Amino acid sequence: MSSSLRRGALAGAAIVFSIASLSACGAGNDAQTLGVRPDNAATAVDNLKLQNVNVITQPKPDVKGPAVVALTIFNDGVKPQTLESVTLPGSAVKVKLTPAKGSKAVTVPAQGRLIIGGKDNASAVIENGNQEMNDGSMQEVVFRFSETGDVKLQALVVPATNYFKDFGPTEVPKPKPSPAAPTKSPSGSPSGTPTGTPASPEAPAGDTEAAGSEPEQPTDSASASHGAGH
Hints:
Blueprint: H1 3-26, E1 41-45, E2 48-57, E3 67-75, E4 81-87, E5 95-98, E6 107-108, E7 112-116, E8 123-126, H2 129-132, E9 138-145, E10 149-159, H3 220-229
Parallel strand pairs: 2-10
Antiparallel strand pairs: 1-2, 2-3, 3-7, 3-8, 4-6, 4-9, 5-8, 9-10
């Protein structure tokens, strides 16, 4: 093999080795180890890197309830930064920030990271988010940090299924129980109605004629005896 061919082979091997080394470094903290997905929003401002940014709604679109903003924040600086607020421009909904269990604030430590979303992590809950967000759409999200200020990006709205199941809303509303059937009222009513009419009170014995009967006419014998007496 000529010297020129040997030099070409060595150069090619060096390029391949460099690419492999860069790929391995990239897979260390930011890719496979941290589950970075290429279709999720990400950005870097100053010493902060925001990765895996999504708005996650309820598993089913017809279910009313909250949604969440989920992401991982890296701080390469020497000072911690506190996430002061999360807003969704163009929407009237509010986002409630809650620190992780045992923490007092939603703070990204210096040379560390912060996960928002998932069990026991900090949370950013969107009130009534399922009614305001449409799965598959893009939603602008603004993160305000204590040192860096506002960081804006477009996040994909996805339901809490498959990969996003463990990072979605934990407060999934339970279906309302169906109302109990009304109890039956006492059946039946007093049977029958009084028959006949009330008996009329008897008239006094002396009032028979007054009741409309004709008076008796005196007989001939009674008239004759009456005349003989006179």
